[in-house]
Amino acid sequence: MDDLIQWNTDGVEMPALDTTGLATWLDGVARSHGCILGPLTYVFCNDEKILEVNRRFLNHDYYTDIITFDYTHGRRVSGDMFISLDTVRSNAGLVGATYGRELHRVIVHGLLHLCGINDKGPGEREVMERHEDEALAALGAHCNED
Description:
The chain is an alpha/beta fold. Helix content is 47%, strand content 21%.
């Protein structure tokens, strides 16, 4: 399963992550949503890179914490996820979370999108947050949050 997930960087240092534990955790999250883990690529970057990706591929002119490109086929979830560590750090401060917890929240947020959970429509944000909270509660069994 560890070989299904690639962890890359673009312009930033790789965050200290227990990638083996995260792979187990993410597999469990996918299975809890009736999905099978397929190839996932996480690209950790800075605000400038995520803005460039947002402009180039989505025609959005703003910073964000994550952009998920969905290649899911049937129940096999697959995708590329760009995560701005700059935005993760600033959002952690805004919500009073540790950087590690916020980073894990964003990591699972991308997977939850691939599992079919949305957060843009009426009431969807609350549903996404509930699924994030449930996934984060299970995280401790697989790896250290911070």
